[in-house]
Fold this sequence. Notes:
Keywords: Hydrolase. Belongs to the HAD-like hydrolase superfamily. S-2-haloalkanoic acid dehalogenase family. It is an enzyme of class 3 (hydrolase). GO terms for molecular function: (S)-2-haloacid dehalogenase activity. The protein is an alpha/beta fold. 46% of the residues lie in helices and 10% in strands. The protein has 11 helices and 6 strands. α7 links the parallel β2 (124-129) and β3.
Amino acid sequence: MSDLSAVKALIFDVFGTVVDWRTSLITDFMWWGKGRGINADWTALVDGWRGMYVASMQDVREHPERGYVMLDDLHRRSLEKLVEKFAIKGLTDTDLDHLTKGWHRLNPWPDSVAGLTRLKTKFVIAPLSNGNVALLTNMAKFAGLPWDLIMSAELFEHYKPDPETYLGAAKLLGLKPEQVMMVAAHNGDLAAAQKYGLKTAFVARPTEYGPLQKVDFDATGNWDIIAKDFGGIADKLGC
């Protein structure tokens, strides 16, 4: 482990790293659909929805003339396409809003809250997520995530892995990049953070995508910390 004595703040990827989005959404929608008498392949919908995530943000990146579009709106656009694709009938505008806000109601991984609480005793902790501010705030309330503040791509009007996100987070915290550690279950996120001077911590979430998981079973970069969960990160940082 490299010298981490200068680190003052930990910032976290959220979807997949802090919260179990796939299981949360599938379970939420199955119970909701059953109560409404709406039959759908909710697993296929959720997997398809996440599958459109990167492309939707890339479209924003490629068309700056259209302005920044926050993730709630991108999620809603993607959902409307999937509802049509899967021929899900009987959904009102209110229903589509409820489903879109399913991303606000995600459950944490079993180690997340306890691990974050330990890390908070020594460091400033905050998300650095592509989720918008309202989404991340509502999620924190729902899941009991003890953030010190909310940092979102929306604040910088750039999605990760654009440099404006990582460097913007350090600037907002009044810190140098090397005083900030990015925590993620995704090697690509950490590679970008490391490129821009941040410290890095990897925690594996091998069931994030269920049977569709293809990458990120293990650390593939020279990260400063590699741990099995947030408790392991806290151990290595003396919390």
